[in-house]
Write a structure and sequence with these properties.
It is a single chain. The protein is of the alpha/beta class. Helix content is 35%, strand content 18%. Strands 14-13-10-11-12-15-16 form a seven-stranded antiparallel beta sheet, sandwiched between helices. The two termini are 43 Å apart.
Length: 1178
């Protein structure tokens, strides 16, 4: 049937901030939907609170509301849009339908609540993509169970419950371990595996609180079973296809988002796969999904009991289904080239699969089920280093923050490629600087280590034969130990964690059998055998002493198996550096060993692909004439058009998120606008940058020196050293630190880099060189020094005075940063800091810490001659909180106009002096003068001549796509030619707030500091600063207390904050809130004239304490500025409990002061909504 003409305006609900369990894959899905529906002529109204995404760029929808994704906010949007339409305002039409199936669980839950409370029916709005009944049947665990049983499918023995008593009653029936799954949540939020009754009580309590309907399902354990998922699409005509089958390498018990996964499914027979496929179709029909994509997950018993005939049956259970586009849909779309979200959006407005074309082939129907003749491997990216107290065990609650994907002809090749896509100083399964086995062998070779394999085969000894620490470490700082003690190795294999795959390799190196490893890991023997093949080939490689000794056939086989030039450089040249990597590259090129590029074609090459979407591999040609010919058929189509290559950011992680993908997408669009052929290189399947229609050419490859140079030289049409190539230039400044770290090596390889030069980037990073710039411009920065050893760091700190801020150089997201108040803290910190820098030999930077200073971020765009301030943001938190974690406002909400102008002057002067061509971010601290003393003093904290994480926020606030303008400058345009000018947000305030993953890590202390810990961000915008701040908090999930009847306010602040909190406490008390406090804080507040309800500290044992009051819902807000950290402290327990019970909490006085203003404003005036287009029009 053709598209529906009765619909004119469609409300698309986005997914909000990037959080663990709901990442930028939904930004990709939502962007696809907005693009597809706009192309069909529909008017699009978008609501999404996330400013970092390309989805909220005003160009992607007709009305863009960056507002909280809550039923209240969306109701206000519906009422506003429909009222404007009723009044006949030009360009408006009432909202006819809401599409909630492309924004993750946030969108789905919001739409369901609006239906349940009658809002959608009142306004005549239809739910498309999936109606309320379909969602109910799929999401309500009990109803879904009944549906599956009616169609003859089996689920694990389970029961849905709404109370703890019912949960324990069922536990008595099924026993431990038990799996807890909350209804209506994403990423397993609130769920987990309970191995004892105490864990069971805790997880059930958390799950009931997390569920929108207060329901959890208790499953009998099927831990150890194999897990699969099918991405399914069905239309109104009952056309039903499997877009992609995905298999988890980890057995059940690990959330699929935390498991390494592969496509296609590799360990089922065709008969078994068809049975699973039929089951998925039956579920789709029974649930009623008929206008979009869904995800169905299955478990398979790897060792079922034999039947009467002695044969083992195929024992399969249904785990769950999602009646919406799932997290895995982005991976499946990129793996096959089939755009699930785009197709789902079109099905939602009436099309059927047979009416739509396959974009990859251009001539086959979308009914054509994709078939792939390569192997795709996805690996999650974790950031446990940001949360040292967190339990790293992987369970049914997702903990990873991002992922990478790699494509290869074989599993072995794609596995090695995806490991080197992780950007964790690993270039494959082994043979790199983090390989404990190789490090131990080299230590033995150099006489640094003796392996005591006679008396104690599991002890590492020094060369004197004494079993003691040897002081030797791998590149990631782990101590070298070989052989690995058996109990440790068994634990590493049995307990799922982020590094388990490397220990599988170590076990094979130590001679453990596949059967033994399988019994501990439950990983299918097929996958273990694949790893064993790599281990055995390593023995072949290790038979040769030098690179020249390696026969060409062996080197070619190594490349076919996915071994990186970096691994070979480490093995044969003893070092991984740009020079050694390029040396290996030149050596294999002389032997004729070069990659070929293959098209992602969705149909196993049965039909020609028309979209230039590539991956690399190594293969022989079908007409090879003999030894030395190692190059097969290359499917790449190289035009003679000038090309701009954009290097993406790789997997999302804390410190390097979707904001950099936003910049890369704009760079691709800018290149097209200027007539260049845009080329994207990235390994992240979740993002819009890796959509095949974002750029002219897409390469899904690891962001390493080897892989990027291979692509760039191939596209250049000749050697990079030869003149007249097709590459105009490469952009390394938009993808965060990952591509920036490749810059030096790319220059050595002859790759032209456009925009700010590598030398200018180094000028900003190198302290000594940058000091010269500051002296020339007569600018200040805190007293500082550079250290390459612990003693040097102590000496510098003693000279400049404590407290000091220490940070490694060449890192992103403040990784490894810490404020140290004494020598002991410095010595403990430096041992870690020297190993976290992304570049070897990079020093530790030491600055005098400016306490109580106001921080300011400034973004600048420059063309080498002219510089424009694109945005100036005042931090709400004082210095000491990482800028990525701090709330900030544009325009500045408290700085004097003269000071703002001075900061702008500094920003433009620095951009010109550094020769910036493109974007630059400047971070400053303002030390306010005391009354009667010198004026405010501005200090330069940091300058980054690259795209910053604040650029998307600024672009949305002022309605200017600054990355697009900067990219065109980098490609040769001047700011004058582009008509660029400084643009300010007038008559309104935009506030960015960060969102944190502490709820995923029970027991972790919620403390903010100089190291970034947030996973995403939201934005509030309004004509008043207090309401803009309030909206940012609501968008981040905070339930702002405005009614004193719902609970009081607990205040506990450090001594220096006590005078500052008095006014806030007085205002809260005046509004009727009961103020609770302990000890010194209570004394201080009482002395200011505000009544306090005193509580005893937790450590005294007196009850009730603040934890009791929180549990009893008597506390609606906590204000706590940390004096001590750690979960075992009173403060740590309070903060962790607040996270667990979802009690709003503020950890700085400025944030508390802003919150009090927000509460006052909400009580006095309420709040409204407006689209970005409205703010731009004023």
């Amino acid at each position: 049937m053709p598209k529906r003409t009765d619909l004119k305006t469609i409300l698309v609900i986005g997914s909000g901030p990037i959080v663990i369990g709901q990442g930028c894959e939904f930004d990709y899905s939502g962007t696809q939907a907005c693009k597809a529906l706009k192309q069909e002529g529909y008017r699009i109204v978008l609501v999404n609170s996330n400013p970092a995404t390309i989805m909220t760029d005003p160009a992607f929808s007709d009305r863009t509301y960056i507002e909280p994704i809550t039923p209240e906010a969306v109701r206000k949007i519906i009422e506003l849009e429909n009222e404007k339409a009723r009044l006949g305002e030009p360009g408006y039409h009432r909202i006819d339908a809401v599409l909630p199936t492309l924004g993750g669980q946030t969108a789905l839950n919001t739409a369901c609540k609006l239906w349940d409370d009658g809002t959608l029916q009142k306004h005549g709005i239809e739910m498309i993509g999936a109606n309320r009944e379909v969602i109910h049947r799929a999401e309500d665990r009990q109803i879904f169970k009944e549906i599956c049983e009616k169609i003859g499918l089996t689920l694990p023995k389970a029961k849905t419950v709404n109370t703890l008593d019912d949960a324990f009653a069922f536990l008595d029936e099924i026993g431990l371990p038990a799996i807890i799954r909350p209804a209506f949540t994403l990423g397993g939020t609130g769920g987990g595996i309970a191995y004892n009754r105490e864990e069971f009580r805790d997880i059930c309590t958390r799950g009931l609180a997390a569920s929108m309907i207060g329901q959890i399902q208790i499953d009998q354990s099927v831990i150890g079973w194999k897990e699969y998922e099918l991405e399914v699409v069905r239309d109104r005509k009952d056309n039903c296809i499997i877009v992609c089958g995905i298999e988890n390498i980890d057995a059940m018990g690990v959330h699929t988002g935390d498991s390494i996964t592969v496509a296609p499914i590799l360990t089922l027979t065709d008969k078994e796969y068809q049975q699973m496929r039929d089951a998925a179709f039956a579920i789709m029909r029974a649930v009623g999904v008929e206008t979009g994509g869904s995800n169905v997950q299955f478990g398979v018993n790897p060792n079922p009991k034999p039947g009467p005939d002695g044969k083992k049956p195929f024992e399969m259970v249904v785990i769950e289904m999602n009646p919406r586009v799932s997290r895995s849909s982005a991976l499946a779309s990129k793996a096959t080239g089939f755009p699930i979200a785009k197709i789902a959006a079109k099905l939602a407005v009436g099309y059927t699969l047979d009416e739509l074309k396959n974009d990859i082939t251009g001539n086959t129907s979308a009914c054509f089920e994709p078939t792939i003749d390569y192997v795709v491997t996805k690996m999650p990216r974790w950031t446990f280093e940001k949360f040292p107290e967190a339990d790293e065990t992987l369970t049914t609650q997702m903990k990873s923050v991002g992922e990478a994907m790699a494509i290869g002809r074989t599993l072995k090749e794609s596995l090695q490629k995806v490991i080197r896509s992780m950007d964790v100083k690993r270039f494959g399964l082994g043979l790199d600087r983090n390989d404990k086995w190789l490090a131990a062998m080299r230590a033995v070779e150099h006489g640094q280590l003796v392996l005591d394999v006679m008396g104690n085969p599991l002890a590492a000894a020094n060369k004197d034969g004494e079993a003691s620490p040897n002081g030797l470490r791998t590149a990631d700082g782990s101590p070298i130990e070989w052989p690995i003690p058996a109990d440790k190795l068994s634990r590493k294999l049995a307990v799922p964690s982020q590094g388990r795959l490397y220990y599988v390799r170590y076990a094979l190196k130590m001679g453990w059998t596949i059967e033994k490893i399988h019994s501990l890991t439950h990983i299918d023997p097929f996958f273990l055998d694949q790893i064993q093949q790599l281990v055995r080939f390593e023995d072949t490689l290790c038979n040769y002493r030098t690179l020249d000794d390696v026969p060409a056939e062996v080197l070619f086989e190594a490349k076919q198996l996915g071994y990186a030039d970096a691994q070979l450089a480490n093995l044969y040249l003893g070092k991984i550096s740009p020079e050694t990597i390029l040396q290996v590259r030149e050596h294999r090129k002389k032997l004729g060993i070069e990659p070929v590029f293959k098209l992602v074609d969705t149909c196993a090459a049965e039909f020609e692909a028309v979209t230039p979407y590539y991956y690399s591999t190594y293969e022989r040609g079908s007409n090879a004439l003999g030894a030395g010919e190692f190059r097969g058929d290359d499917e790449i189509r190289v035009s003679d058009r000038r090309k701009v290559v954009i290097l993406g950011g790789g997997p999302n992680r804390i410190g390097q998120g979707i904001e950099f993908d936003y910049c890369c997408v704009h760079a691709a669009f800018a290149a097209k606008d200027l007539g260049f052929e845009s080329v994207m290189i990235n390994s992240n399947p979740e993002t819009v940058s890796t959509d095949y229609d974002t750029s002219d050419l897409l390469f899904f490859e690891p962001l390493t020196l080897e892989d990027t140079v291979n692509i760039i030289e191939r596209l250049n049409g000749r050697s990079l050293a030869a003149p007249g190539g097709h590459i105009h230039g490469t952009i390394v400044q938009f993808g965060g630190q990952t591509p920036l770290n490749l810059a030096q090596g790319l220059v050595k390889a002859g790759v032209p880099i456009i925009g700010t030069s590598v030398d200018s980037i180094d000028l900003a990073e190198d302290r000594d060189r940058f000091d010269t710039v500051l002296e020339k411009l007569r600018l200040h920065r805190p007293p500082a020094g550079i250290a390459r050893s612990i003693d040097e760091a102590v000496k510098i700190a003693n000279s400049i005075g404590y407290p000091v801020l220490l940070r490694p150089s060449y890192v992103l997201g403040g990784r490894g940063m810490e404020i140290c108040s004494d020598e002991r803290a410095i010595r403990a910190f430096i041992q870690n800091a020297l190993k976290v820098s992304d570049l070897d030999g990079a020093p530790v930077l030491i600055d005098k810490f400016l306490s109580s200073a106001t921080e300011v971020d400034v973004d600048v765009v420059a063309d080498g001659e002219t510089a424009i301030i694109s945005g100036l943001m005042e931090h709400i938190e004082h210095a000491g909180i990482h800028s990525g974690d701090s709330a900030m406002s544009i325009p500045a909400y408290s700085l004097k106009p003269a000071l703002v102008e001075e900061i702008k002057r500094i920003g433009t002067a620095l951009a010109k002096e550094l020769g910036v061509r493109g974007l630059m971010n400047l971070q400053l601290a303002i030390k306010h003068g005391e009354p009667g003393s010198e004026a405010d003093k501005v200090y330069i904290l940091e300058v980054n001549p690259r795209a910053s994480r604040t650029v998307p926020f600024i672009s949305k606030a002022v309605h200017v796509p600054w990355p697009a303008i900067a990219a065109k400058v980098m490609m040769g345009k001047s700011l004058r030619e582009l008509g660029a000018r400084e643009t300010n947000l007038v008559g309104a305030y935009a506030v960015k707030e960060s969102v944190f993953p502490f709820a995923k890590f029970p027991g972790v202390d919620f403390v903010l500091g100089p190291e970034m810990r947030s996973t995403g961000e939201v934005m509030g915008i309004d004509r008043s600063f207090p309401i803009a701040f309030a909206k940012s908090q609501m968008a981040g999930g905070m339930d702002i207390p405005t009614d004193p009847a719902r609970g009081g306010v607990f205040i506990s602040v450090r001594d220096e904050d006590k005078p500052l909190i008095a006014a806030a406490a007085r205002t809260l008390s005046g509004m009727g809130f009961t103020i609770y406090a302990t000890g010194g804080t209570a004394d201080s507040i009482e002395q200011s004239g505000t009544p306090v309800s005193r509580l005893q500290k937790i450590a005294t044992g007196a009850r009730p304490n603040v934890l009791d009051l929180m549990a009893n819902k008597q506390i609606s807000l906590i204000i706590n500025t940390p004096t001590r950290t750690g979960y075992l402290t009173d403060e740590g327990k309070i903060r962790a409990t607040a996270v667990r019970l979802n009690v709003p909490m503020l950890s700085t006085v400025p944030a508390a002061q802003a919150m009090v203003r927000a509460i006052v404003a909400l009580r006095e005036t309420g709040w409204g909504v407006a689209a970005l287009q409205d703010y731009a029009a004023r």
